[in-house]
C-alpha cells in the first residue's frame, strides 16, 4: 500500500499535494481496492509521515523533494507483494560481550576500589547504554508494528486482487439489485 500511495501522489502531480480523497480515488481507479481502503489509507498515511516518506501540509500529502519517489515511481513493474530489504539499526548493533566468571570477579574487584567520581562515571555510562538499548528495543517494536500493518494491507489487497471479475460483478449486481428491491417495496 505504501508504494501505491506514493505512486498516487507522484502521478497526480498536484503542486500543493494530494488530499486523502484524491489518493483513495486514484487507487480505486487504478486497482481493485478493498472495502476498508479508507481506514487502511489513513493508517498508512500516518505511518509514511512518521517515517519521513511523506510531508503533510493543510490536509494534503506531498513527497519530500529529497525522496527517491519525488521524480516518479521507481520500480513500477514490481509486483504488489514483492518486498525490498530495509537497512535496520538492529543490523548495525554492537556485539554482546559475554564475560567469564574470572572476568566478572576482576570487574567487581575494580569496582570496589573506585572513587566516588569513577563510580558515578561508570553508573552514567551504564545508564546511557541502558537507555540506548531501550531506544533500540522501542525502534524494533515500531518497525515490527509497521511491518505487521503493511503485511495486513498487502494481504487485504492480495485477497481483493484474487477475486475473479465474475465474483466482483455478482457482488456489485447483488448490491445494486438489493437497492432496487428495497425501493420497489416502499412504493
UniProtKB/TrEMBL annotation:
<dbReference type="GO" id="GO:0003691">
    <property type="term" value="F:double-stranded telomeric DNA binding"/>
</dbReference>
<keyword id="KW-0238">DNA-binding</keyword>
<protein>
    <recommendedName>
        <fullName>H15 domain-containing protein</fullName>
    </recommendedName>
</protein>
<feature type="domain" description="H15">
    <location>
        <begin position="1"/>
        <end position="65"/>
    </location>
</feature>
<keyword id="KW-0158">Chromosome</keyword>
<feature type="coiled-coil region">
    <location>
        <begin position="120"/>
        <end position="157"/>
    </location>
</feature>
<dbReference type="InterPro" id="IPR036388">
    <property type="entry name" value="WH-like_DNA-bd_sf"/>
</dbReference>
<feature type="compositionally biased region" description="Basic and acidic residues">
    <location>
        <begin position="83"/>
        <end position="94"/>
    </location>
</feature>
<dbReference type="InterPro" id="IPR036390">
    <property type="entry name" value="WH_DNA-bd_sf"/>
</dbReference>
<dbReference type="GO" id="GO:0006334">
    <property type="term" value="P:nucleosome assembly"/>
</dbReference>
<dbReference type="GO" id="GO:0005634">
    <property type="term" value="C:nucleus"/>
</dbReference>
<dbReference type="Pfam" id="PF00538">
    <property type="entry name" value="Linker_histone"/>
</dbReference>
<keyword id="KW-0175">Coiled coil</keyword>
<dbReference type="GO" id="GO:0000786">
    <property type="term" value="C:nucleosome"/>
</dbReference>
<feature type="region of interest" description="Disordered">
    <location>
        <begin position="65"/>
        <end position="94"/>
    </location>
</feature>
<feature type="compositionally biased region" description="Basic and acidic residues">
    <location>
        <begin position="170"/>
        <end position="187"/>
    </location>
</feature>
<feature type="region of interest" description="Disordered">
    <location>
        <begin position="158"/>
        <end position="187"/>
    </location>
</feature>
<dbReference type="InterPro" id="IPR044597">
    <property type="entry name" value="SMH1-6"/>
</dbReference>
<keyword id="KW-0539">Nucleus</keyword>
<dbReference type="InterPro" id="IPR005818">
    <property type="entry name" value="Histone_H1/H5_H15"/>
</dbReference>
Amino acid at each position: 500500500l505504501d508504494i501505491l500511495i506514493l505512486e498516487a501522489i507522484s502521478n497526480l502531480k498536484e503542486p500543493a499535494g494530494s488530499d486523502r480523497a484524491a489518493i483513495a480515488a486514484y487507487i480505486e481507479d487504478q486497482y481493485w481496492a478493498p472495502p476498508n481502503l479508507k481506514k487502511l489509507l489513513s493508517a498508512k498515511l500516518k505511518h509514511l509521515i512518521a517515517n519521513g516518506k511523506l510531508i503533510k501540509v493543510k490536509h494534503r500529502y506531498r513527497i519530500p523533494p529529497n525522496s527517491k519517489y519525488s521524480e516518479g515511481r521507481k520500480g513500477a513493474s514490481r509486483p504488489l507483494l514483492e518486498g525490498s530489504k530495509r537497512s535496520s539499526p538492529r543490523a548495525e548493533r554492537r556485539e554482546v560481550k559475554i564475560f567469564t566468571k574470572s572476568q566478572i570477579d576482576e570487574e567487581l574487584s575494580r569496582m570496589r576500589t573506585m572513587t566516588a567520581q569513577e563510580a558515578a562515571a561508570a553508573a552514567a555510562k551504564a545508564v546511557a547504554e541502558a537507555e540506548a538499548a531501550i531506544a533500540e528495543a522501542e525502534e524494533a517494536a515500531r518497525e515490527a508494528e509497521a511491518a505487521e500493518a503493511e503485511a495486513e494491507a498487502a494481504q487485504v489487497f492480495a485477497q481483493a486482487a484474487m477475486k475473479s471479475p465474475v465474483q466482483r460483478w455478482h457482488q456489485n449486481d447483488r448490491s445494486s439489485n438489493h437497492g432496487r428491491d428495497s425501493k420497489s417495496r416502499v412504493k
